[in-house]
Amino acid sequence: MDQDILFRNNVKVKGHGSQSIIFAPGFGCDQTVWKSVAEAFEKDYQIILFDYVGSGRSDIHAYDSKRYSSLAGYAQDVLDVCSALDLKNTVFVGHSVGSMIGTLASLGHPEYFSHLVMIGPSPCYLNDPPHYYGGFEKEDLLGLIDMMDKNYIGWANVFASTVTNNPERPEVKHQLEERFCSTDPIIARQFAEAAFFADNRSDLIKVTVPSLILQCSNDIIAPLAVGEYIHQHLPNSMLKYMDATGHCPHMSHPEETIRLIRQYLSMASIVVSLAGRGAHF
C-alpha cells in the first residue's frame, strides 16, 4: 500500500463488506460532501473517500499545475488510489465533473471498476449547436473565470446559488459556498478551466463499464438534454430521472440518492448472479 498516495489524497477507508465503493467529489468540493450518502453504505460495503489534490485536507504541496491542467491528472489520481488500495471491481460514484474523471479513469483501467454511478454528469458544458447543448455559451464560462479572478468570494456566493438552484434548502448553498471559499483561488480557477472547458463527448462510446446516470430536475449545470445525450452515447448505461432539484442531490436529497444507487446495485447484483448460473439475456 502506497502511503504517500493515501496521504496525498487524504484517503479514508471505512465500512464493511467485500465490495468497495469509491466516492469522487465534484468541482470545488471535498470528501465531506458524501457524509450522508457514504454512511448509508458502510454496513454492506467498504467505503473509500478521498480529496483531490488542492482540495479538502489533501497534501497541497503535491499540487502540480501542469498535471492538473486537465481532467487526465485528476483521473490519474483516482487510478493511483485504486492501485494503492489494490482495488478491483469497485463501484465508482462521482458527482458532476467527478463523473467524467471516473469515466477517464475507467478507460485507463476498466478492471478497477464494476460500475460507474454518475450524479449530474456532463461531458461538455459548452453549447455546440445544432446537435449538442451543454447549457453554456463560451462567453458565460469566460465570465465565470473572470469573476473568480476579480472577486472570488462574490463568485463563490453566486456560483453556489446557481449550482444548488434550491431556495428551499439554503443550508446546502451555504455548505457549498464554504467549501468553495476554503479552496485556494488559484487552484480553484485552474480546476474550473480544466472542468468547464473539457470536451469528453468522444470518450463516452469507449466506456466498457456499466453505468447509472442520475439526472436531477432543474439542474442548471447539467441540464436534462445533457443527461439524455450521455445515455444515448454511453454503452450499457441506465438513466434515472430524480425528483431532486439542483445539481447536488447527494447533499440536498441524500435519501433519494441512496435509494436509487441501492436499487441499481441490487439489480446489477441479480444480473451477475443469474449470468453466473448460465442465464441468457
Automatic annotation (TrEMBL):
Gene3D superfamilies: alpha/beta hydrolase. Residues 21-254 form the AB hydrolase-1 domain. InterPro entries: AB_hydrolase_1, AB_hydrolase_fold. PANTHER family: ESTERASE-RELATED (PTHR43039). Belongs to the AB hydrolase superfamily. This is Sigma-B regulation protein RsbQ. It comes from Neobacillus bataviensis. The lineage of its organism: Bacteria, Bacillati, Bacillota, Bacilli, Bacillales.
